[in-house]
Amino acid sequence: MVGWALTNDWSNELDFIFKQDYYQQLVEFLDYESKHNKTIYPPKDQIFKAFDLSSFNNTKVVILGQDPYHNEGQAHGLSFSVPVGISIPPSLRNIYQELKSDLNIELSKNGDLTHWATQGVLLLNSVLTVEKNAPGSHAKSGWVDFTDTVIDILNEQKQNLVFLLWGAYAQQKTELIDQSKHLVLTASHPSPFSAHKGFFGCKHFSQTNDYLKIHNLQTINW
Q1: CB 220 within 8 A of CB 119
Q2: Catalytic residue among 52, 67, 102, 112
Q3: How many whole angstroms separate alpha carbon 19 and alpha carbon 218?
Q4: What integer pLDDT is reported at residue 4 of this predicted model?
Q5: Residues 158-193: pLDDT tens digits?
Q6: Is 9 designated active site?
Q7: How far apart are alpha carbons 34 and 19 in whole angstroms?
Q8: What ranges in the chain are assigned the alpha helix state H?
Q9: How many other CB atoms are there within 10 angstroms of residue 134's CB atom?
């Protein structure tokens, strides 16, 4: 598919996946949906934006979301992030609130997390596409196999990564991660329904930077 090529060193790690039967079926599914007038988010050229901005070599932190925002204009290929000019979603507002509490960083006026991604924060959704106004609609399309493989590769080939797993869904991925090699930080999801159950006060942003500093890695300018 045009617009589906990886443009950096991720291609060396992931090109083999594109030959897998399940991935070919995923592409066919998305083509079929598009041809039958289904609106898919994010736009095709932004599906792999998380990988484009945070190269394999540069990735130091992984923040795992579930699937993209499903309302018009929100999804742009980065978990929890929305483009400049789009109203900040409630979960991201709570992320900003925790960031303020943890590191005294003023709340951003926009929801674009590109500046995190370009520093090596892989903002990875477990499912990379969604149908308009239909949350979870592509959950069984094959994306989970793809992103689980991404986590496997990061786990095996990298050292001293930080995985931020917020909420029960993300925490299922703990079993894919060797915690003798990497730091896994867990908390409740930043959603308004659960942020008060352990996300607020988790101090994951300072803990991430403390860990990176210990391992002589550049900290994140959150």
Answers
A1: yes
A2: 67
A3: 35
A4: 62
A5: 999 999 999 999 999 999 999 999 999 999 999 999
A6: no
A7: 22
A8: 10-14, 21-35, 49-53, 90-103, 114-117, 143-157, 168-171, 204-214
A9: 13
